[in-house]
Prior knowledge:
four-stranded parallel β-sheet, alpha/beta, 2 domains, Rossmann fold, globular, single chain, 12 helices
Amino acid sequence: MTGDAVLLMAYGSPDSLDQVEAYYTDIRRGSPPPPHLLEELKGRYRAIGGGSPLSRIVGEQREALEAELAARGTPVPVYAAMRHIAPRIWDVAARMAADGVERLVAIPMAPHRSSNAAGYRRALDRGLDGLANPPQVVFVDSWHDAPRFIEALATTTRELLARFPDPSAVTLMFTAHSLPARVVAEGDPYPDELARTARLVAEAVGRPDYTFAFQSAGRTDEPWLGPDILAEIRRLAAEGATELAVRPVGFVADHLEVLYDLDIEAQGVARGAGIRLERARSLNTDPVFIAGLADVALAALAGPASA
Length: 307
């Protein structure tokens, strides 16, 4: 095989409980988690069935993207890899080089640019450094406003609102994974890109009245970006809200942050506060989303290699 290829890079998540400790240790840069935090995380995975579907879904996204590119006359191979669990990004990148790939379009399955997402590039470089003839790299560091990504979010938001008797009376909330608050002082574009995605989706569905909350903050002592979704649910309840439509815009697949943090934890807080909470379905292999991902890949293939 020679020529072009695409690499989808996801954060990774354990498929089973016996992978949780190694996964958590990897996230903590080799520091084993305290026993109580490990058991807490295992409990969350137990609550969603014993493991995350993320690896399977990314594999399905890979297949769907490869088929979409072929259907558009660009039959290039698509690979998939993870940051914190096998198959690791550096291993797959090295395999792509061994397969004869000459130009590699790397797409993090995190649409918004952030200091955290820079870890994808570091993992990729680790796999290619030292190779005699590494592929040229076209790294897509942001695709937060890709038109068909926005269209897919808007379509699923309309579906979500339609579940309620009076969609106009429902509070619409967009969410994304929190990051340490210091990223704002460091000039990280993440909050601004999230705000733009939310605004574009809100405009597409005709809902200028929406709220935004962060979720899934890490267990560290430093402050994280807010407002936190659980606090926002309680605030909305105190103001008299009874119906809440949640559309995550920072995630493109089902995983723990969706299936537990929203569907179990946030849902429990909402029920306790007397609020009906409904979540939009995840994009996963939605055809419009996959078409948008193909748009991103094709635009990158048409451009120059990254530095």
